[in-house]
Structures are given as structure tokens and as C-alpha cells.
Input
Amino acid sequence: MNTLLKDAFGIFKFVEGLYAGIRKVLVPPKAYSWQTLIYTSIFSWVLSYFATGYIKDVIAFFGWLFLIAGTAWYTTEDPLRVPGTFMPVGAVITGFLVSVFAFGNQEDVITPRTIVFWPTISALITAIPEFIEGTDTDAKARIPKPEDRQRIIILVASSMLLSCWIQFYFVMDHWAKQYPSLQADTFKRSTFVVRTEERVKIPKNGVVVLERLQPIVEQQINQTSWSEVEKWLLDARQRVGTLGRGVIQKNLGEYEEKDLWRIEPRVANTKSGYILDLLSIWIGPSSNPRGYYLKKSCRIEPVAAPSNSENKITVAEIECDRASKLISGSPPPQQ
Output
């Protein structure tokens, strides 16, 4: 029985201590405190939810200011330093809030610019108090001591360097999304790019262009009179180029690399007809100085018209390769 009473009393003391700790954090000791600013920011956001027009933005703006001020106040009362630096953890938290406030938006609260500027803003927030001396009511500007200037410069410069590397990551990520064909290249000679995923063996967009172009060419040639087909092949460079530009614009319009693909034909005579090579040529950056291109070959031969046809003339029959071939080097010259 005594044991149960002791356990119950211990639990009561624990709950009482927990309540006291929560009350100390949530209840402001005086009107001028960081809790007041946090509660004011929450109240401002609640009001902005019911407001409309520019009033909504004004109230939300002040809500952010109160949140930033309250957070900065709370985290600087008993600052915890980032290991190896004199930067308070509170400056990191406040810097994040300032960055979100400055570079976020309603659709995306955290944007790439938010992450990029976060370290630099945190460093500047850490450095600002070094230029101020005195109390809250009697403060004035001052020049930091020489030894303080050195550590401020190192902290700000290091944070700016970190921001540059983060920005470099987002640039590379953007290139990978807008220029996916670069993933088919090799980065063995690069000093700062390391491949973390398996290399793409053949550029997808180059294949897509040829796959979409093939049925259009087949439709224009197949079962067409042989004389018309020969005229078509004489003007193949212009015809295929025009069709290729249309296919690229339709299928690669969402990628910035669409301007780095060029479609050209190559026509060669055979004993029984012609060979039409459809080339998808990459004119963008490549580890190979001569670049590369993809090829899909089509064989065109004359055949007799179907028996149900009214005109007994010779027509063309076309058969194209099922897969595209990736070839390193410059495409063959046009004849």
C-alpha cells in the first residue's frame, strides 16, 4: 500500500513539474516578452485568414515580423552555439524564418532561394550584434575589435561559400531536369560532378523524336507512287527538317534542350531502291568533341500496286528499323 502511495505521489509530482514547465514557457512573465510577440503573430495570422484584399497581406506581413522578432528574442536568451562556430542556433532558426518570409510564397513556402540564402542570412544575423553595444534602451553602433572582425569575416564568407554550393546543386538539378540528354554522357573527367545513379545508355529525348517522326514519314511514303517518292527524296532535307522541327516542338516543348536537337535525313541508293536514314543530332555540350547522333534507317523499295487498286502503277513500300542506334562522332556529310 505504501509503495502504491509513493508511486502515485511521484506521478503527481512529475505531472506538477511538467505543468509548471509548460506554464513557464506559455505564460508570459510580463507583457514585454517573447511569448507576447509569438501570440501576436498567431493572432495576426488568424485575422489574415478572415481578411481579404491587400488588408490580408498587410496583416500577414506583420504576423511574420512578430514571429521573427519573438523567435529571435527567445533563442538569444540562453544561446546554444553551432559546434565549431560562435553562431547561435537561434540565429540559424531566425535566419530560416527571415529567408522564408523574404523568398517564399503562398504556393511554395520553401523555395530554392529560401535554402540558398539561409546560411548567409543566419551569418549576418549573428554578426549584427557585434556592431552594437549597450542595452536595449541605450544602444549605439561600434566597430568590432580586430580579433572579432576576423571571426566575423570568416563566418560570413564561409556561409556565403555554403550558399554558393547550395545554389550550384540547384543549378545542376535544373540542368538534369531540363537537359535530360546530358545524363547519357560521361562525367569521368569532371572535377566536381560525381554520378550517383546508373548512367543512361541512350538519350531518351533523341529516341522520342525519331519514334514520333517515323510514322509520319511512313505515312507520306508508303503506298505512294514511285515517281512521287523519288521527288520526295530529292527534297528530303527540307521535308524531314520541317517535320522534325514540328515533332521536337510538340514532344520536347517542356524541355529547354529542345533547341539542341536537329533532325536531318541521309539518302543513299541501293540496287533495289533507297535507304533513308533519319538522324537525330545532338548539338549541345558533350564529353566527345565530335558529339553524337541517333540513327533510324528506313528501306524504300518499289512494289506493284495492290490488286484492288484502280491504277496499275508502281508504288513505294517502306520498312524502318524498330530501334534507334546511338553513334558517337559527327554525322556523315549530306550527298
About this structure: The first strand starts at residue 132 and ends at 134.
